[in-house]
Structures
1.
Amino acid sequence: MKTPHEIYDYIKQFLTEERLNKIEHFSVESSDFVLPVMEDVYQYRNAAAIVRSVEACGFHQVVALEEENVFNPNLKVTKGADTWVKVEKLPRNLASLQEIKSRGYKILAVSPEKNATMLPDYEVKEPIALVFGTELEGVSQEILDFADETLAIPMYGFTKSFNVSVAAAICMYELKQKLIKSNIDYKLSEEKLLQIKIRWALNSIKSGEMILEKFLEEK
């Protein structure tokens, strides 16, 4: 059975030197300490903008809770960020949130409800799953009731809220800055780091999955 190190060493030969250098460089800052969770987002431009912002901040996974709508990013808007970001799709229900919580995440809903902590005042202490609501209604009451805490972005004008993709960008960037300035070991473990390098390498190669399958079949 091939080890992850053997797999990565094998598929690296199919990458250009430039692509390999980029994977090695940007993987170091990758983190799953903050996990963005999107509740039934339905506008594909918003989905794409969220994926792009998440990747730009070094968080390379998004959970899409789907019910009526499909999380389907517009590839023109993602500007290639979808190559690096893994989108995990789960049903929009509390069982999915419980599953995320069982992975060690605190459920943090982005909403001004329930005496929310303002983003500048929030202190990151443990891994958080950051839940964003639908474009029109925000986070559902069911999820608000389930959440461990709520987080709000301060508003300084008549407008009561940001567009969901803008809110995601603001939160992800601000939380990344908080992590950088903290003493928290927020980066990926050696095992997870290797797995993300493999995924990125496969996504960078034409017929990458077929190449990997053939390699794994070799005795």
2.
Amino acid sequence: MERPLIDIKGVSHAYMTETGPLQVLDGLDISVPTGGFVAVVGPSGCGKSTLTRLIAGLMRPDAGEVWLHGKQVTSPRSTVGMAFQNPVLLEWRSILKNVMLPLEIVPTKLSKREREERAYRLLALVGLEGFEDKRPSELSGGMRQRASLCRALIHQPEVLILDEPFGSLDAFTREDLWQTMQALKAEEPFTGVLITHDLRESIFLANQVVVLSGRPARAQYVMDVPADAQRELDDLYAPQTAERLNILRRQIEVAQGRGRARPEA
């Protein structure tokens, strides 16, 4: 059987505080197959963002192992792209040059012309054609986040980590970007990990949703989302979607200590 592209095995991690260690992850197991897209949800402060840093190799776990493509992660990986809630675009660079920034850091065989062509193509894919020479301050929040997604994908990473990238946007812009993500996934295949507090977002974008328990977090519940489900916005109002959302809401209540798990059909 093919090994998962992302394999998180028994991972535990704690932060040192003035009052002693704060355990955030405890024996966490998650696996994501090549081309898969997993959404991770859970109570605030349960270690979701810590998980992204461990996958990217920006931190090392206190116990357990993180594997990418059959290799243990012990340092930052150039095969990982990341997008965050704050796009952090550089104001003194144009949108095109912001998108191309990772190619100045990550080794590439692409010529300057090929790098520019790739950046132009990505920007066109997300609806930013004609904005390449604008500065970040000239774009709306949603447009800046589109540019951030392009920057995360410019070096063709194997893994794309999205840490609440749409959390600060209004509802209409957020839904528009969900559809943009679907288009990007079709044109630029990647294995994705999405951190989100939006349950609708999780089942719209992902083919698996992992609910983390309260701190210290473990994988409390895993929901598989059919490949053909919730890929149009209208489908988010279908009965099957409502049932999935209810299940996830109940699991979040359990993780928050406000309810008890019930058998799911």
